[in-house]
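Input chain follows. Return structure tokens only.
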Amino acid sequence: MRKDLVIIPEDRPGVVAELGERLGEAGINIEGISAFTGQGKGIVHLLVDRADEAVQVLRDAGFDVRAARRVVVAPLPDEPGHLGRATRTLADAGINIEQAYIAAGSKLVIVCDEVDRAKELLGIE
């Protein structure tokens, strides 16, 4: 099952490279990433499909993995308006989006308060 991993590393050169190397060595593919820094720390979101394994690999490497959250992964055509339509569907249903980013293959990754309902509304299995 795909999950969004939340990692809180130190803000220093090479962190993203290390994440990629450790997961790559374990044969775990990173399908999406969102990363930013502030106040000496980083916040990295990784979309992976073998989340339990990935969490263990990263923790063994000394990374602070704070969460492995279920996500909605929806196809998102690379054309104007599709992001608005998909997220409007969720907003009109009262579903709150907590995190969103674009992943490889034009996929929209959404962490929200009602994952199963959001998948149903967006027509995702």
